[in-house]
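Think of the structure tokens as a kind of shorthand, similar to the way a musician reads notation: each symbol stands for something richer, in this case the local conformation of the backbone. In the example below we present two proteins back to back. Begin with the first one, reading the sequence and then the tokens, and try to describe in your own words what changes along the chain.
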Amino acid sequence: MTPKKLLVIIPDGVGLRNFVYTNFPDEVKSAGWELVYWNATGFKLDELGFKEISLKPKPRAWTDLLKRAKINLELEYFEKKFNEPVYKKYKFSSSQNGLKNKLKGLIVSFLAKKYEGEKGLDKLRTLIQNSERKSEYYKHCIEVLSQEKPDAIFCTNQRPVNAISPVLAAQDLGIPTSCFIFSWDNLPKATKVIDTDYYLVWSEHMKDELLRYYPYINLEQVKITGTPQFEIHYKKSVVLPRESFVSKYNLVSSREYLCFSGDDITTSPHDECFLRDVAEAVNQLNEKGENIGIIFRRCPVDFSGRYDKVLQEFSEIIVSIDPDWTGNGDSWNQAMPKKDDMALQTNIAEHCFMVINVASSMIFDFATKGKPCAYLNYLLELKDQKKDIREIYSYIHFKTIPENAVFWINNKEEIGDIIQQALEDTNKERLGMAMSWFQQINCCATEASKNIVHQLDQIN
């Protein structure tokens, strides 16, 4: 009997992390499916032993303008529907550099105004699909699918415009489609660009969000699976002994290390200043007899030199261990993770006693290891303040956080005391709250890949 064929669309690096580097391929094989990746990244998956088809996306420029208008319009609609002004903070200002960008911005504004309201949004979704059906890219996708004849299509990301044509082509050929909502904060930000027959989500909480924001989706279309990205933290085989980890990254064996995880420049434009504040607090603690170091893990899409001065000034206590990603883009669809980065991240969490950052989901990575997180939550003393990062904690995805799930650093002077508390902390209640929050956001930390394959098997 010929096995069923699953064609998995990898539109960007997030898809690599979740569905190539995890347990997912093995689970697909165990379920008796033939796995083929439809790969839009520069990574050669056949070199890893996988079957792949190269996907060379060329969505229409008009489709992208319609998509941008839809996102802006959805955020305005959410703001009115839920009487919540925070949605406007999710809007990104379009570039005004050059006549071409200004013209695009005007078109997007015109479209958003023309199609405002729920009926307008429905019309925009139809226009996006009709636009892509006119593209040569769509025709190419039809040809590939007609040749491959997959039994099901699974898209690993709900937001890339380059995934619209492959999904549409599959639907027009009668092939069942599904997609994965890849991040805990995506749905409130109106990033759902593609429409599929089924949606796989992290938790009951995310299911409720999806149905609330997109009431045209039926309850039966949404399947709860968890996300594969945290499975690595439960694999003891990838954890290095402390001596090996210390030696590999030139750490001081007698020191206890905290992790400062950097944010992208949009989320935290002055992140290097927060790193300086933490380094100064660590120096003061060390002068009092502690022996603490900092492992700095930059954001994988931040290739800037903004931290260089701080890293040089505090080189005696800060060790920078860069994420094992490739590329030089400044967005998540340009930089690509390597498989070894997942092991690197879990080892950092294993060998640090806490993590400090601005509003990062690294709290969940550390929670799986029983380690606390401290969120920076104060306004820096700068003349040119580009953003008050405290506003991030008012975003929709933070409304679920238990107040005491993290240490809150509300001013610079608190950093040292909180680090010392974390170093000595035996308060199981805080870690329990962090894990409770994690389980609310992601129901299945260890079985996600198996759950996803099971659901794909059931719905196809």
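Once you have a description of the first chain, move to the second and do the same.
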Amino acid sequence: MKAPLALIDNLENLPNPFTQFEPYALTCSTLTPLLQQTDFKRDFQLALCFIYSYNGSKATFNSYRREVERLLLWSWNIKSSPTSHLRRDEIEEFIHFCMSPPSEWIGIKNVSRFSNKLGSRLQNKEWRPFVSHVSKMNFRNGDAPNTKDYSLSQAAIRATFSILSSYYGFLMQEDAAQHNPVSLIRQKSKFVKKEVTRKQVRRISNLQWDYVIETAEILAEEDPLMHERSLFIMNALLGMYLRISELVADERSAPVMGDFIKDADGNWWLKVLSKGNKERLVAVSDDMLQALARYRRFRDLPDLPTVAEQTPIIPKNRGKGAMTSTRQIRNVVQFCFDSAYARMCEDGMKSDAEDLKVATVHWLRHTGISEDVKIRPKEHVREDAGHASMATTDKYIDTEYRERHASSKKKKIRPD
């Protein structure tokens, strides 16, 4: 089975399909002959309009593009049908396909869908709709991704159901589909397993964090030009449990020092634009304020921000302006994790350091929230974290686990 080519370009290279579809479709039809047929051309336009509606967030746009593009490719190439014509049983067939796609549809690395060549956007023949990955630990051990090892996580399956259901709801509103075949699937449980218990939150231990932040401080003392910024990033990610996207500039916002705000009582807050394009205020603790002042002194700025100050919070290492790459933040955090791991091993605590080999940036957010719910009202933590519901914050309260495990401590395998 031949690997399909990408259909939908990146947000920055995608014209508004509501107003500029015809010239874009004409270009695409030379790459995808099916688009010369009216039904498929209309299917493509509706799909683009649906996806483009989520252009307020690049991450959300990419998620919706991934799921709808996979459906388009499968429906067009496997079923020879527009997606608007699919039945419930065919959607089930598609889900099974996603769970076990043919090897030709699976890549072993993330590559761009399109590339620039002589002023044109051309489809990248190396791109695949599905990508096989290896865990961080296995990669460090020398394992390489293999198409035979591809698997679709439960979270990914749930996302597929959710996004495609929204897509068919949109098609119904546009009178392109008479029903929502996703909502007609009565036994989603055969695809999505119900969780019988609450998952443990992935976080680093207090000992590991002590080593990580101490390591960042040592690095900053040894090479301030490179690592004063690293130290502030680590403090901000845990101390205000920010998401990585909330520190970098993107099409929605560019975090600046003026986003640190002092209220009438002299308390400091950080205004961030979070998921769903919602602004929230994060309380800035005294320790975090001291970390901010140290970072600003290094940058030859007054200790505390001024009203409407436009200095980027996280600047680029080279050039002017704010950092725009989340990958750079990940690299900073990973270097601190790796350095802390090495120090712990040198101190004879290799077993205590193991989590740092697999930890990710998001673990810092989890760690900060998990520690704060022990000492602060959970309503306050919820607001600072930007959780949509209290149920999300409750996941970080592990008293239930402590009590449950304590009651099992004295259980005997051979009862008296």
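Compare your description with these statements about the second chain. The chain has a mean pLDDT of 87.
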